[in-house]
Write a structure and sequence with these properties.
The complex is a heterodimer of chains A (223) and B (81).
Chain A: E1 2-7, H1 14-23, E2 27-32, E3 44-47, H2 67-77, E4 81-85, H3 87-94, E5 101-103, E6 111-119, E7 135-142, E8 146-148, H4 151-159, E9 163-168, E10 184-188, E11 194-197, H5 214-218
Parallel strand pairs in A: 1-2, 1-3, 3-4, 4-11
Antiparallel strand pairs in A: 5-8, 6-7, 6-9, 9-10, 10-11
Chain B: E1 2-9, H1 16-27, E2 40-45, H2 51-66, E3 72-77
Antiparallel strand pairs in B: 1-2, 1-3
The chains are: A alpha/beta (223), B alpha+beta (81).
């Protein structure tokens, strides 16, 4: 599988993301934001975490106009698989590839810690190797990760099984670190080819670093 | 021409910064404050002398980039100077 990881000025998780997918035996290419095309034969595009364009104006507000994003949007609209992690998730909502919007964390702090997540839906590529209700321990690191969507949009997310992950404690009880609507940590689009989450599965791939729960998440993309 | 764009979270969308500042004001004994909402102001200087045209262009700028209309409202002002 060929994984294209987009790199914007201010992106800082591209090397971790590359390392994670290479560890899983995949070929990874870093693609600079000024590129207008994705590499031939790209199977998965990853928009990694960081602070693209300094997060000026709003997180990911400027990144969505990068030349590479036009190619990513085109790729997604043709059914290509796209995964946005953290700042990448923010890019996907800013680009309207995913519904909703991202706000400042409710406590106004930047939060960087391990956090448990609960798998809500697994009938999609991303979480197919996880079971419903499974608890995953994955780092979060964001200041603007409070997911917002209006009531009508939220109903639609549930009806189409687009809610992927919610924040919880180690026993699976609701624990909302940032004020996200319904503690939502990750969603996908209706067509189930565009995925976004605030937590960092690429930082949870080795037990010695605290958790390897990210492996079965990223493995979902690998046939 | 100077154009001022004011951007705020929509009514009903919780404003965590406003809430934090409200708490801080209360702890300073400014108990008369009922609510604090924080927005941003963007001041543009644009090469356009026709107000209607400027309004039209700045509206597009707001919809495309300056505001996220999922959660934010904006207003456009022309300061008299």
């Amino acid at each position: 599988m060929l994984v294209a990881v987009a790199v914007f000025p201010g992106t800082n998780c591209e090397i971790d993301t590359k390392y994670a997918f290479e560890k899983l035996g995949q070929e990874v290419v870093l693609v600079f934001h000024k590129e207008e095309k994705l590499p031939e034969g790209t199977d998965l595009v990853v928009l990694p975490g960081g602070f693209s364009y300094g997060d000026y104006l709003r997180s990911a507000a400027i990144a969505k106009f990068s030349p590479i994003m036009k190619a990513v949007i085109e790729f997604a609209n043709k059914g290509g698989k796209v995964l946005g992690i953290c700042n990448g998730f923010q890019m996907l909502v800013e680009a309207r590839l995913l519904p909703g919007a991202m706000k400042r964390n409710e406590n106004v702090h930047f939060i960087s810690q391990f956090h448990h997540l609960k798998v809500i839906n697994n009938d999609n590529t991303f979480l197919q190797k996880c079971f419903i209700g499974e608890l995953l321990n994955v780092p979060i690191a964001h200041g603007e990760g409070s997911y917002y969507i209006d009531d009508a949009g939220l109903k639609e997310l549930y009806a189409n099984k687009q809610v992927l992950l919610t924040y919880c404690d180690e026993k699976g009880n609701v624990k909302n670190p940032n004020g996200s609507v319904d503690s939502i940590a990750g969603i996908c689009n209706k067509e189930k080819n565009v995925f976004g989450l605030m937590p960092h599965p690429e930082r949870a791939i080795e037990k010695i670093l605290g958790s390897d729960d990210g492996v079965k998440m990223l493995e979902g993309f690998i046939n | 021409m100077k154009v001022i764009v004011n951007i705020q979270l929509k009514n009903g969308v919780l404003d965590p910064q406003g809430k934090a500042v409200h708490h801080a004001l209360a702890s300073l004994k400014f108990n008369e404050v009922n609510e604090v909402r924080i927005g941003k102001q963007i001041i543009l200087d644009i090469a356009e002398s026709d107000k209607a045209k400027a309004q039209e262009r700045v509206t597009i700028m707001c919809d495309e980039l300056l505001a996220n209309t999922v959660i934010e409202d904006y207003s456009i002002e022309f300061p008299t100077c």
